[in-house]
């Protein structure tokens, strides 16, 4: 690793938000600003009783999962999003990365809010020690970090998108699992805010990657596509090991792996590539999917129903002034 | 669609006429566009910008669209789609809606499809994520064929 290669943008112009080159920059900036939140707004202390109902193994697992997520958010906030700035195509893109970087730091800090609410200082310190000592957790951070310090701006975006849209999910699984069992529900609410943010980040960085592909030779495009899938395989192999490290003690590893496959497909789609894992291995536990999004279940598929049902979406307020009817 | 465009201008609302049974909106990220391309069905894309003239539907259609906006649901339906549906002739011909989204957005996953389903009283037929998997493509392809067959049978029933 050669940290000195991480460079700053070598030329800065005064950013003019009244002259937009890529409308996605404005759209995503607005989206991120509207989504802004802080952990202090989530009533985590309401989870203390629920926390006490977890077994010691379950508590240990939960703390380890959150230290792992803390490491990834720290990496993305301190290095990842910042490393994308020098190669931004527009000045507005640079500004969006600063927003992403800050929000990743908010995410990293929010795990500490969970810890300080639920755990003792000694337990917290032990969980952080575990995060430093776990080989597979360290390896995934190192793989990504090596690309952030590398020379290829498009590979940085690939690594960054895979982190945002794939690597977090071995961890995100657990709070969704607790939520589906009516445990740690406030913590799950906070994690859902992080999950929402990561979706915007992965979408945007993946979009900028695809913009970067425009005009490149077919050979270079093929090289980057091969590279994406190779990196995905490398990270996936490591994620499987990491998942076993964490979840074997509670017997959930196989269920977590389906969630990994499902999210790996979405990460690839964010980069503009087709899904890699077949539906036979992406059948995420419906309880987990429902904890993520109440609208994601099969009941919302009109085509697979008998055809006699006439499904109308749930009532929603539409206050947009633009509707004429 | 050139055959459609060659038809004499229809004497109602303005806008480029289309006879496609699929009408869709996709932003410059092209996720929804890619999904529709994979269906290999005749489809008309709504203009990218609201200042452009919208489409005029000539035949019944299913609308495919992504969801915009955040938590509150405000602004979920892209403005370009609102402009299209503000044309009453277009509203009369919508038969169903298919939503694109990302489950990471929780309760607002494919919300725009729900909004249009309620406002236009048509079924929200299917939801898919990002640019859709091959399974999504197969199900929508088959589902739409059955859907149109069923609708035409209902219409010809004495």
Written overview of the protein:
The complex is a heterodimer of chains A (325) and B (158). Chain A is 65% helix and 0% strand. Chain A is mainly α and 325 residues long. Chain A has a single domain, classed as Orthogonal Bundle (Ribonucleotide Reductase, subunit A), CATH 1.10.620.20. Chain B is of the alpha/beta class. Chain B has a single domain, classed as Flavodoxin domain (Rossmann fold), CATH 3.40.50.360. In chain B, helix 2 (31-39) packs across helix 6 (134-156). Chain B is globular. The chains are: A mainly alpha (325), B alpha/beta (158). Chain B: Pfam families: Flavodoxin_NdrI (PF07972).
* Level-2 CATH architecture of chain A: Orthogonal Bundle
Average pLDDT of chain B works out at 89
Order of helices and strands of chain A: HHHHHHHHHHHH
Radius of gyration of chain B: 15 Å
The radius of gyration over CA of chain A amounts to 21 Å
Second-tier CATH architecture of chain B: 3-Layer(aba) Sandwich
Low-confidence parts of chain A: none
Please count the helical segments of chain B: 6
Derived from helix and strand composition plus strand pairing, the structural class of chain B reads: alpha/beta
EC number (chain A): 1.17.4.1
Subunit structure (chain A): Tetramer of two alpha and two beta subunits.
Pfam families (chain A): Ribonuc_red_sm
Cofactor (chain A): Fe cation
């Amino acid at each position: 690793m050669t940290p000195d290669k991480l460079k700053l943008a070598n030329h800065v112009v005064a950013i003019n938000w009244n002259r937009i080159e890529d409308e996605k920059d404005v759209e995503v900036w607005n989206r991120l600003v509207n989504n802004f939140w802080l952990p202090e707004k989530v009533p985590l202390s309401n989870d203390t009783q629920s926390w006490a109902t977890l077994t010691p193994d379950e508590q240990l697992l939960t703390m380890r999962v959150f230290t792992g997520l803390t490491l990834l958010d720290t990496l993305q906030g301190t290095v990842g999003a910042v490393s994308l700035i020098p190669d931004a195509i527009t000045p507005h893109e640079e500004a969006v990365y600063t927003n992403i970087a800050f929000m990743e730091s908010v995410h990293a800090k929010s795990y500490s809010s969970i810890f300080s609410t639920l755990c003792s200082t000694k337990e917290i310190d032990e969980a952080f020690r575990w995060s430093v000592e776990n080989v597979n957790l360290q390896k995934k951070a190192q793989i990504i970090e090596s690309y952030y310090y590398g020379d290829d701006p498009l590979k940085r975006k690939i690594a960054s998108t895979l982190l945002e849209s794939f690597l977090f999910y071995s961890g995100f699984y657990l709070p969704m699992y607790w939520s589906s069992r009516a445990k740690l529900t406030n913590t799950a609410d906070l994690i859902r805010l992080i999950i929402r943010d990561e979706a915007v980040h992965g979408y945007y960085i993946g979009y900028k990657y695809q913009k970067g592909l425009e005009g490149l030779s077919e050979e270079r495009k093929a090289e980057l596509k091969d590279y994406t899938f190779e990196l995905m395989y490398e990270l996936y192999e490591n994620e499987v090991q990491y998942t076993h490290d964490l979840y074997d003690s509670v017997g959930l590893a196989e269920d977590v792996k389906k969630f990994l496959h499902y999210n790996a497909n979405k990460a690839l789609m964010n980069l503009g590539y087709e899904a890699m894992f077949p539906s036979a291995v992406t059948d995420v536990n419906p309880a987990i999917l429902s904890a993520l999004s109440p609208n994601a279940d099969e009941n919302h598929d009109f085509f697979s129903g008998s055809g006699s049902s006439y499904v109308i979406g749930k009532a929603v307020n539409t206050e947009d002034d633009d509707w004429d009817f | 669609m050139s055959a459609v465009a060659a038809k004499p201008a229809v004497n109602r609302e303005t806008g480029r006429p289309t006879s496609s049974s699929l009408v869709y909106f996709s932003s410059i990220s092209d996720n929804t566009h890619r999904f529709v391309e994979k269906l290999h069905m005749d489809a008309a894309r709504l203009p990218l910008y609201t200042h452009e003239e919208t489409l005029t539907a000539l035949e019944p259609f299913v609308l495919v669209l992504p969801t915009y906006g955040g938590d509150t649901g405000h602004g979920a339906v892209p403005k370009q789609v609102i402009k299209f549906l503000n044309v009453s002739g277009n509203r009369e011909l919508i038969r169903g809606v298919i939503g694109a989204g990302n489950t990471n957005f929780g309760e607002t996953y494919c919300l725009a499809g729900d909004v249009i389903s309620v406002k236009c009283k048509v079924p929200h037929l299917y939801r898919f994520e990002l640019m859709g998997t091959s399974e999504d493509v197969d199900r929508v392809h088959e589902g739409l064929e059955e859907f149109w067959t069923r609708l035409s049978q209902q219409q010809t029933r004495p």
